[in-house]
Amino acid sequence: MDKFHQSPNVTVGEVNLKVKDLQNTVSFYETVIGLKVLERTAERTVLTADGVTALLSLEQPKDIIPLAGRYSGLYHFALLLPKRADLAVFLRHLIQSGYRFGAADHYVSEAIYITDPEGNGIEIYRDRPSSEWKWENGFVEMATVELDAEGILKESSEPWNGLSAGTIMGHIHLHVGDLKQTEQFYNDVLGFKTVSYYPQAAFVSTGGYHHHIAINTWKGAGVPTPPQNMVGLNWYTIVFPDETARQKVISQLEQFGASVKKESEGYMTSDPAGNQIRLVLGSKGA
After folding, report:
1. Of 11, 33, 52, 85, which has the fewest CB atoms closer than 10 Å, so is most exposed?
2. What is the average pLDDT across 15-26?
3. Whole-prediction pTM
4. Could you tell me the domains of the chain?
5. Rounded distance between C-alpha atoms, residue 105 and residue 169, angstroms
């Protein structure tokens, strides 16, 4: 695992989505994305790349309604592949499968974008070596330019066999209603640092990564929190290296006036846009 996704950095871990058709969605994540089932019940399935770490969990609540309208919530979650060769194998598989996708080079990374059958966004990407990232005045240079698909495909002719076991949750990108307020929350309360801006978007990280979390108002400033029974993001985890780091943030959340609820799996809170966050320690969802 790269240095940006391990202690002492605070990172993003498991993402939990609400879906309308659990069986169909699990099948998509197995066959198109290449994740494996870690745990399965009638209402919930946990997916993994390495057979140990939960990366994505899917739940089918009762009376769920499809994703629609302009709300805060998930723009995409992003699975980070260890090498460019892994991206080559995935890209070739995707082309052969005929599933629709988008692609972009962001200078710091090369990315493929897919939407699952329920409308949830997914990014599959590889990072360029951090020595190649360009920084100026504390900000990293990022853009959206055409992906060199031919160059990527030349990196490997290995057959597709699912996602590499070294795949991790690289970052999460969220729709919010108030960019400044939410950015302040992630920085001043949760301890991240803004490292890049894009029109109506901010990118925050720890440890000098290009972003562990991104937020945008591309669905419109002031968008409300979605109905609780709508398809989409249920919660995602922020992973702390130790209890001291987590308790510091919990105390900052309480000072800020945010609700913090203790649960068996950690502590639950939410950002100003209503995106629910589970605060966990490294061994869970890292």
Report:
1. 52
2. 98
3. 0.97
4. 3-281 (3.10.180.10)
5. 19
Residue 273 and residue 180 in contact, taking contact as beta carbons nearer than 8 Å: no
Cβ atoms 99, 114 nearer than 8 A: yes
pLDDT digits (tens, 9 = 90+) for 106-148: 999 999 999 999 999 999 999 999 999 999 999 999 999 999 9
Closest CA to 212 of 148, 286, 281, 269: 286
Location of structure tokens 């005045």: 137
Compute the distance between CA of residue 44 and CA of residue 40 in angstroms, rounded to an integer.
6
Residues in the chain: 286
Lateral strand order in the sheet of 36-40:
36-40, 44-48, 54-59, 11-18, 232-240, 276-281, 266-270, 261-263
Q: What's the rounded Cα separation, in Å, for the pair 134 and 212?
A: 17
- H helix and E strand count, the chain: 5, 18
CB atoms within 10 A of CB 68: 12
Q: CA 20, CA 29: separation in Å to the nearest integer?
A: 14
